[in-house]
Fold each of these.
Amino acid sequence: MRDTGRIYLDHAATTPVLPEVARAMHEALLEGFGNPSSVHREGRRARAAVERARRQAAALIGADPEEIIFTGGGTEADNLAIQGAAREAGAGAHIVTTAVEHHAVLDACEALESEGYRVTVVPVDGDGRVDPDDVLAALTPDTVLVSVMLANNEVGTIQPVAEIARRARERGVLVHTDAVQAVGQIPVDVNELGIDLLSFSSHKIYGPKGVGALYVRRGVRGRLKPLVYGGGQERRLRPGTENVPGIVGFGAACEIAARDLAARAGQERRWRDRLIQGLLEAIPGALLNGPAPGQDGAAAAGGVPGLDGRLSNNVNVSIPDVAVDVLLAQLDLEGVAASSGSACTAGSVRPSHVLRAMGRDLDAATHVLRLTVGRSNDDEQIEQALEIIPRAVARLRRAGRFTVQRG
């Protein structure tokens, strides 16, 4: 059971499973135990549950159900899109991506480079946004795929994916977007975006971990090679017996996300803006990373009106003169769950590759606090966080805890 006395501000890392989702999964575990590939009643019941979830997932992004391929999560979906397109095209294939992608994309591209495939990494501006002209200029006759995330997981920047897709597809190039952070946060319609491949994940939208999906536009499946081989499940792109309870939970989470997306985004945007304003006012030297609230993001989000340039739930600030790993530990002790904008492993904090690509210096790229709001929060918690965080920063500065403890 979740500790209701805590303030959870790390929804971009993962979200708590909703009770409605858990109930659907519980039923699937107890009553939908059959193998979906079996022809008997138990198997048919499991198959029906999987196909219902496929319709729910498709509806959230404006796709047809047969265009949804269930995977083990967003990372696998990214790899299936990127490695699948490259390997099907063969040696010499060229991929274009950006400097601020999630490591699931960048590391997949790096692995392909080590095998002789070619990759071009396009830079971004100071807000973390890529210029469609730069992407177009990077295309060559051998380019088989462009992969540009829809919204950044660290700073929340919404990318001009629709414009990139329109221009790349005119050249016959497949377009993939990692929409793991965007789906469930902003309206996403694959037809309005004009993309061929889209990755999204269950645990970012209040569903279970270990399940996600890759949208594969009709007619594109033959241009992907599977990562694993076995049975004929998921149209032979992702063989293996389906994770029925996880898929059912994912489908339920998709349906809930579609139901109240607009109202929830408005609420979260208000909390986001309050946190940004409060932190910048209360913490000397704090610097906002990513687009400022109020910047028009309609063009970036495929023409969706009412959006500004960053995700409605994302706050990312650099806080100089404080060891961020110590700050996170202190906040945890005081009941606030937050994260750094950089990768944390084994007690070390690495500079954010996203912030470095945006032109931030080493100090600003290392001393980062990321707060992401969600369904777990309320107005009172936001105000409590604005009391706790500046107080903790001031205390650490007085104590001289300036330097990140590196592993």
Note: The longest strand covers residues 94-98.
Amino acid sequence: MALAYGAWGEKLVNGEVTEGIVRSTVVLDPEGNVKLAQYRVKAQGHVAALKDALGI
């Protein structure tokens, strides 16, 4: 699933390039279509920004 939604890839950890899960948010509609996708998100403030983007 991570590969399918683009949430797996290169990232920088402690100054070293590694491969793994990229912190991401993918929102699906009831039919399973991607409504919103955000990658390399920061935890702080993300929920508020997500609610704003979705009009919630």
Note: The longest helix spans residues 46-54.
Amino acid sequence: MRNALFGVAAALLWAAPGPASAAFTICNRSFDVANVAIGRDERGTVETRGWWKIGPNQCAEVIPDRLRGGPVHVFALDVFGRTLLSGSVPLCVAPGRFVIEGAAADCAVRGHLDARFLLVDTGAAEAWRLFLAPIPE
């Protein structure tokens, strides 16, 4: 039953502009630890970073500086490796902590894992807060 609350179809995602003190913050309102990776444009190429471990009812500031336009990509797994949040943007991740430059193509060839990230359009906002939560029964 608890597994039915999570997954791509069951993840409730709510995002809103956040306070200026934290540029991009992810809050975990689920019942499990979320392992989160992000991707964003850095110097003309997509760069992915991970993992932030975010406990239940906790938040993590994943981008500490003000947003400067452009999308932020987000991917999340639970502690068992099941997808909590994904989208349609193919980017690379790695099993342990990582920073991968040029993460948009040939992940397996370069020794990385493929993941499908959700594109979060932050528009002109300088700060953003994203919530990951189960859908109530």
Note: The mean pLDDT is 82.
